[in-house]
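tokens incoming
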């Protein structure tokens, strides 16, 4: 029975991580698209893409693993 609760909690944490990270990822990708349509050299648009993806992955890890739950 305890395994079911743990699996449900993991699923919820992953879902919460995705739902918390997606808005920031979409804003970052929209910024890249805006830069590319604005007419700036495509290199600049793709230079800011790795930090956006890294920060999104880092925030997913923090939200999905409850990294900050035990801090008071």
């Amino acid at each position: 029975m305890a395994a079911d609760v743990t699996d449900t909690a993991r699923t919820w944490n992953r879902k919460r991580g995705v739902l918390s990270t997606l808005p920031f990822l979409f804003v970052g990708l929209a910024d890249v698209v805006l830069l590319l349509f604005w007419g700036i050299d495509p290199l600049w648009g793709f230079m800011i893409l790795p930090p956006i993806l890294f920060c999104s992955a880092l925030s997913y890890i923090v939200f999905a693993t409850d990294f900050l739950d035990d801090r008071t």
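note: Helices lie at 2-38, 42-47, 49-64.
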